[in-house]
# Entry
Amino acid sequence: MEDQQPETLTLTPTPSPKPVKRNLVSSLMEAATSTLLPRSSSFKEDSYLSSSLTSSQLKSLQDLKHLLSSSSSSPSSSPLSIFNIPLLPFSDRSDVILLKFLRARDFNPSLAHSMLLRCSSWRSSFNADTLATASSDELGFKDLESLVAFMHGHDRSGHPVCYNAYGLFKDKLIYDRVFGDADKLARFLRWRVAVMERGVRLLDLRPGGINSIIQVTDLKDMPKRELRVASNQILSLFQDNYPEMVARKIFINVPWYFSVLYSMISPFLTERTKSKFVIAREGYVAETLYKFIRPEFVPVQYGGLSRPGDLQSGAPKPASEFSIKGGEKVNLEIDGIESGATISWEIVVGGWDLEYGAEYVPRSEGSYTIAVEKTRRIQASMEEPVHNVFNCKEPGKLVLSIDNTGSRKRKVAAYRYYVRKA
# Structure
């Protein structure tokens, strides 16, 4: 079997009908939650090139190096290392680590030095360097992998992506099993730190390299009150020991009332902090994630094409992206398919809630069009992409139909296909 490249693929939209009239309630709800829609961010990631630092920042870096050299000169002191990178002798990689601690303390060398020493002590007592390679049997919580916190793929700029979803803990039995007492909470924190350590191992930690990750946090069904103790401890651990490790924080499935809370706390956040935030309410998850992450790397539960384990065998086949306006119908035509070929395809639409169907149109005028998938309505709750295979008995084209005429909402979509001939 070998891949066959079809000759053409066309995307054909049909004319849009008249706009759907809005009622007063829907207009007010949209206005109340408009701050949750993804916006273009002013965020600019920090550079770790010495040429990009100001003279005062360079001086702070030199002062911190002096403090480190002094504190490490005593015979009883052990070699300092953070994230398996020796801080002495100084190097380009150690400079990246030092700059992260300096930025976390507004380039105050004394405060950054104290923070760094505390972090080194914590890593030693926590055995953090061993967690990245620890097995599921050692850490426990194998059933939480790929569900609660996991590294999966990278964004369009190459940053590793960490997903967090705590809605699973709305089940009291699961919550008690994981957080039922202090020992269980300590084991969970150790497991969660291991996930972070795996993410750090994916970074370059070099000037000009990829030096931070992307955090995607799913707030759907999150039992906020019950998880307060655990989330506070996780936040404290990461703030103290993983400074400036997150380039962007994407919150998805955010409740509509969050806009009120965000408007209250927004004046107290720095512009730099707010520039890292991307906030999207339910129904805009795929649209938001596609801005930063290609569909073949977005997990299926968030409107992408990537399933657990897909990335272990190498880079996935790239997907094609398109959007469907409200009131529009789109036909995707995969032409040039030879007789005897087998075509398989995957397609996903963010927020679905539209009509989908597939048919095969033979090239010969005397042949009949074959309904491969009868047109059906796919609900918004559909998380998995559509996947199908068709054996072509004669030359022709496959037509995928996506009908969004019953909605006024624009939707993002992605698909990919494989054609093999015998």
